[in-house]
Records
---
Amino acid sequence: MTAGYKNLLFHQVVLSVIILCHGNEFFNDNGNVILPGSYNIAWMANVQDFRTLSLITIPGTHHSMARYGGPVEKCQALSLRDQLRAGIRFLDLKVFALGDTLYVMHGVMYQRSTLKEVLDTVRAFLSEFKSEAVLIRVKPEFFEKAMVNEMVQSLIANDQQVWVSSGMPNMGQVRGKIVFLQRSTFTLGIPLLQTNGKSIKKVTNVKDKDNTIIDQLNAAVEASGGDNEVLTYTSGTGFGTFWGMFLTPKRVAEKVNPWLNQYLRQFYPNHPRPWLGVIAMDFPGFDLIQTIIGLNEY
């Protein structure tokens, strides 16, 4: 083997390691990514005031705070602050009421944050970017579920920057605000309609997962524009199954996210482009987030 060939092979290996460590533009498992200076953080500024939230396609994250607990539990790499700055406008939070505190969980794993800390981070973001709105789904977990509504109301008090009405607002009404979404035992905010019925879908074959997402997004198009916020989860895990036992949320997202980007790009020639509601993902990359935001160009 010549010295030149060895040198070329070395550089190819290094490049491969860099790509694997930093993910691609559609999938990201790097928590230290820095946004380009030209990145448009305040993308909702381009959404007309009269457009209702049910007529906007919104990028979101599934288990938004799930960054700890190992490969079975981890669904995100970016911090909450970085997710918001990357364009994420829907947060998916499971909380556990203990004493007078709501802890953010994923399964039995505490995600090193309380709901109050999450709300404080979102408020700080909205203070800086007043054209934006952040939708939040709170799902009570374990015991004392009935207490969560009262505890959230206590947290927000009479804050006029929080939307808790069940009426569907337009963009002009919610700029600079946190918008709660209600479903099941959590009853504050806009009614939420899920296209798949469950937040996590067991995955044993990724191709089957792709086809399921197509069905979900078709359902989202049919339901858009109504009195419910429509939500599609693209996340999945094979944990708990035999054939998919090695398909962690990260492994599923590695395959699903590039495919999802390609699938959504097919709508770009359309005018207007379809409204797909909220699309909540694991490990989304910046280009995938931008593809979803781009569906709002009319």
---
Amino acid sequence: MGEETNLSVANGHNDVTELEVYLVKDGPFVEIAWRESPECNLQTYQKLKEFIMRYEPFEEADVPVSNILLLGQVDAGKSSFLNTINSIFKGKISSRACSGSAENSLTKSFEKFRIRDPTSKKRLKFNICDTRGIEEGLSINDEDIGFILDGNLPNHYTFNPFEKASTKVPGFVKDPTLKDRMHIVVFVIDGSTIDVLPEIIIKKLKYIKALAVDRGIPQLVFLTKMDKVCGFVEKDISNMFMSEVVEGLVNKAADVIGIPRSHVFPVKNYEKETNLHINLNILVLGALRQALLFADDFLENQSEIEQENSRR
């Protein structure tokens, strides 16, 4: 202010007759949400949680659980998403799957995780399937991805980036049924690095998407680390759908994978937090709910196909 003081600015007195207040924003912020967002309150949280606890796979498909496959680049947050879901139902921060940062993928094997409801002691009716991260050089073989989608690879199979899986793998499922196959593919993408994704990673993601489409498997994107790209979201995660930054990244992810924008869910995993937060839980549970609904769509379609084949 140079030589100006509060008195010189106020003409020598502090009597206020009119006051105009300005809001200083730290980034693009829209006045109307770019997507209808769930209300951030206890009722919404309990409703989402109850839906997932009571979820049963499409009845006519006759499968015990739905299979949700997580795929994405290294350090995108696949394992962290699983840990976040487990934390929500456990009621405290947990870490069933190895997560964190590393030069190469921390997840080395194909793992099917079941979430347990602590109140009933029963496991919920879906598997969250974690896989090795997609990276340059040491990535999942194309053939292995096909085997995963078709339900050939056994649980705990360890990936070898230098050698593809074969029918000689112990526990290899030679004649998988609908219960063995993947019912929904979820691409987990780091929103803070999507603008600099290497072309080889983008090509791999699109290849996986094509494999899923060929098999009629629906796809979603969970866009992670939104708190790292928008200060509004970092301060209050309920601002997620008011942020132009987040909206732009959702559009970018939809273009990269080639899916509708409504199929991209911006989320945040538990990372630095030591306690649970309802607003974060609501976003994550909403994304999981959509994955289960899409899995049911796939199971319904496959049931109709099997019924048609049986009538021929």
